[in-house]
Amino acid sequence: MVEYTYQQRIAIMRILLDIIHADGIIDARETFFFEKLKDEFGLAEEDHEVVKNKNSLLALTQIKLLDDEQKEHFAELMAQMIIVDEDINVNEMAIYELVCKTCGIEAKFEDVVNSEQIENSTRS
Q1: What is the pLDDT of residues 23-48, one digit of tens each?
Q2: pLDDT per residue as tens digits for the range 35-84
Q3: Buried b / exposed e across 41-72, counting CB within 10 Å, b at 16+?
């Protein structure tokens, strides 16, 4: 697994939370994936408040400083969060593209998820 500092993990989770809320629908699969990532990142339940209170713009500045391996992994996490509910929403994609452009992440969405996942998803 790719290593991140505590502050990097909080920043990553903040952006993922933004993706969850982007379409106005919080799907159980998104929540499950988010909780799974919190566990994998070793974040406690009280860290959820820290994530919610994190400013998204400040999170972007921290993500911009990630190394290339971390950025690639983060792009995969964003893509998985977008596709986990089997709906590729235009607002979620806008966040993905903005984060990638702002933070110098050169991973195209289509390259970080498999084509079967894309084919099995609706677009809204």
Answers
A1: 999 999 999 999 999 999 999 999 99
A2: 999 999 999 999 999 999 999 999 999 999 999 999 999 999 999 999 99
A3: bebeeebeebbeebeeeebbebbeebeeebbb
How far is the C-alpha of 110 from the C-alpha of 52, rounded, in Å?
29
Q: Which residue has the tokens 């988010």?
A: 34
The rounded distance, in Å, linking the Cα atoms of 91 and 23 is 6
Which tokens is 90 given?
A: 């235009």
Give CA separation, 62 vs 15, 16, 93, in Å. Answer: 11, 14, 20
Calpha distance 64→76 (Å, rounded)? 15
Q: How far apart, in whole angstroms, are the C-alpha atoms of residue 66 and residue 70?
A: 6
E strands present in the chain? 87-88, 122-123
